[in-house]
Amino acid sequence: MMDEGTELSLTIAQIVQRLKATNLHSQIERQAKECLHRPEIQLESLKEDVRNFLKASGWERKLQNAVYRELHVNWEKRILKSLNSMCTELGVPLARKRPAVEQKELTNKWNEMGTDEPDLSRFRPVYAPKDFLEVLISLRNPNHDSSEEASAKSHWGLIQVPLHDRDIPQMREAYSELSLTTGQLGIDDHTHVPPDLFESEHILIGKKVVNEQDSAAAQQYSRQGCPTGLRADLWALVLNSTNEPEDVMHYEQLKAGVIHHDLLVDNLIYKDVKLTASNDDYYFVFEDFLYQVLLCFSRDTAVLEHFSYNSATPPKSYIQGKVGVEEFAVVYPPNGVIPFHGFSMYVAPLCFLYNEPSKLYSVFREMYVRYFFRLHSVSSSTSGIVSLCLQFERLLQTHLPQLFYHLREIGAQPLRIAFKWMVRAFSGYLSTDQLLLLWDRILGYDSLEIVAVLAAAVFAFRAENLMEVTSLTSAEAVLADLSTLKVMPLIQIFLFATVI
Amino acid sequence: MSKNKTAGYKGPHGYQKRKEGDGRSCVRYKCGLTNTIQDVLRQRPGWMEVKDDGEWDFNWCDVGWLRENFDHSYMEEHVRICHFRNHYELTRKNLMVKNLKRYRKTLEREAGRIEAAKCDFFPRTFELPSEYHLFVEEFKRSPGSTWIMKPVARSQGKGIFLFQKLKDIMDWKKDGSRSEEQRDETQVESYVAQRYIENPYLISGRKFDLRVYVLVTSYIPLKAWLYRDGFARFSSTRFSLTSIDDQYVHLTNVAVQKTAPDYDPEKGCKWQMQQLRRYLTARHGTETIEALFKDVDNIFVRSLQSVQKVIINDKHCFELYGYDILLDQDLKPWLIEVNASPSLTASSQEDYEMKCCLLEDTLHIVDMEGRLTGREKRVGGYDLMWNDGPVYREDVNLETLGSACFTANTHLGCVNDRKKQLRQLLKPFPGKKRI
User: What is the pTM (predicted TM-score) of this model?
Assistant: First the structure.
């Protein structure tokens, strides 16, 4: 499906070449020339000084972002190409209007699409998380001097980009509500802890927050976890997700779109749901909801708006025969998001909280455009997957160096195991109640960083067993089953009880 | 059957309040089943299986064995067996309904209509052919209604079907027009016709029922324990009243589901009780669901009370019941059935572990080893639900008596941290050091 290694390096080289011709590049060149007049630039350390100057003044950052953007565009093009070739191979159009009979059938079956057993054997997921990981690994700073790699302070992991991330002392401040002395749901609501120590009070406060419909308060509150009975309302508040008539109407319009047209990606969605959520002990029950949400999601052009703050540009397809002609370019699928293997797991946990399709849809869409999209696009954002990967590797290298070294030596780079957890924000790996407690904190801190922290904390928790393994397969076996983990104690211990 | 040839123990011990230290270090057991219970018994320290006619202290038998042998067995004081002699008063569908109806009448007479209404947790049920005419009256009162026919004595969903027209049950018609010979020839199996619950609570379009485990160690006085774990069993297809012939839609027994054409054993049609409780709480809020579970507790207690005077109480007997409960869209729980021999076969690894723990804890409560004081309110995953009266979480004493706020000591679908609790509660097995 996807090539590795040489094709990617070629891509990077091409990107660098292309950037050389851009306006950005000439601007940087000019800046570099001008800064030579500055007192801090010394002849002896010219290269270093110029680079430091560019970094401090933000130009390096701009260059990085440009590289990321280019790479992401490139990536999306490849996915789209794969989709197009699947389309040609199978003789299935990217989009097709449904005949009246089919439309009627689908309307009748809307609430039980899971009963359909279409022949999906010819369809393959366009890509899986591990393909995406290869792309990220290839992302090396084009300015990176190969001589620096030999230094002792080099990064042992797979991600070799100079992004800034927080260390544990900084995170202790940022995540102060998770400290050992603060009450948490997921820790202090256990049966042996008397409820009046924390839980009862917390629930009362939660009820107040919901009654007052205070979004900012709901976000702050979520940092300590949401009570099961209040979570649905609290999340809706934090996400400003409403279920007003306009929202319902919007959903109905999307549904009408599904009825009228069949998209190739619909088959990818079916396949994904059948392969992942339907086989899950907890989520199989929600199969029908997943179709109702994801099929509509594909057609929601409002999702495209998020691309204005994503470093990517949406994949484009061209009306037959007019490839390259901009007037005939359409965004495909309409929402600009091509689902990958496991995508339906972003929706599945939400089915626990909302069972009205339009409400479920509204919450999911908001979660996607705020958080989930960052998990499968290339950007330099601190909540982006690149950052999370780097954060994870750095935390591991700094605080569990022995473990990291050992795993590297046996050919089991930790990121290769943790990547799939992070791309899905742990959905499908943790038990549902634990997952929801984790997502409480994603909403509470408006950041996915906690996902990287948890990934590192899991390795810390199983460190003893991992030190004994001698292969990637056995390392994966040790970390195969996370369903018994309790996330809050793990995160708390990692952040607040690690000796630094 | 057991003769008093065992070494060591002689003399009486109190029926309910066994003194600590009185117990056996070696327990001889007999086991008539070949599933999870076998493993649990085999792994229990100090327990040894006896074969054939050997003397036993403990017998996990099936109801067939019980029927043939119970009346001819003499059991020493300490001996325990896993069924009550006439458990069928609770577990056969027709008898259960008969006992519940009678109990309800008594309640109404003695305590009024409101109290009696607390027994309205079973759908209108009639035994056929004996109550055929009563049934027809009720049937005609609710035109268009759907009914379910269940054989009285069979299990695992066998022989069950739905109907909406009287002609579908002509075989069970009891009328004078059939000659003596005809009636002798075509002996009809006893069935119950029950009003079908047409508005079951659905999760994502699917119907489910609950399996809950209740352990009774005595009927007089009534002492019953409720296990925290259990599960919700989903039908593998979407619910619809238009296809009443499709038994796969309506019957949620795993045994039936396993034969459905699109059954996928990998799929797992069960949710753990904790999962269900969390889902319901997330959807309806804590208070509503706490009230629901209180109603569920009520079903257990009332159903046991309804047979309290009928069941032959015997200190040798204990029984683990599997209750089947159905929720409707108004979140009202309904009693479908009580099973005296709930399936102990495991459908998955998770299921196996749950059943092992259930059975281990059952044996802890039966306490052949004499490690309990008799005053415990919780043993492992079991909470004492009724002890000749309601059991509360809070300690009831002079100070708290004035308070109106007592919560029942039940935790169905709540966290089951049994290992920890057992470590704190139990002394090590006789002859074994504490781990």
Answer: 0.81
